Amino acid sequence: YLACANTGINRSTYYRWKEADAEFREQVEEVMEAQVDFVESKLLSAIKGGDTTAIIFYLKTKRPQPWLQ
Question: What is the pLDDT of residues 27-66, one digit of tens each?
């Protein structure tokens, strides 16, 4: 993780804290959710702009064809 590198925290320390500290874990989950929200907003903007690749990606992930499952 880039955050670990930027703060000088070893990844094993991060995972240990995440496992042991509920408040830390909750904060991590909030940051991850904010990142997903940001990316989703960019995807939706691309779709609104007519980006065919974004439209196809969205449909493939949100509406998989039942005959392929």
Answer: 999 999 999 999 999 999 999 999 999 999 999 998 877 7
Cα angle value 39/5/24 (rounded, 5°): 70
- Cβ distance 4 to 16 under 8 Å? no
pTM comes to 0.73
Q: What are the distances in angstroms from CA 9 to CA 19, 31, 45?
A: 15, 17, 35
Whether 18 contacts 24, CB under 8 Å: yes
Cβ atoms within 10 Å, residue 11:
11
The tokens for 3 are 């955050």
What is the C-alpha to C-alpha distance for residues 9 and 28, in angstroms, rounded to an integer?
14
List phi, psi (to 5°) of 8.
Answer: 75, 20
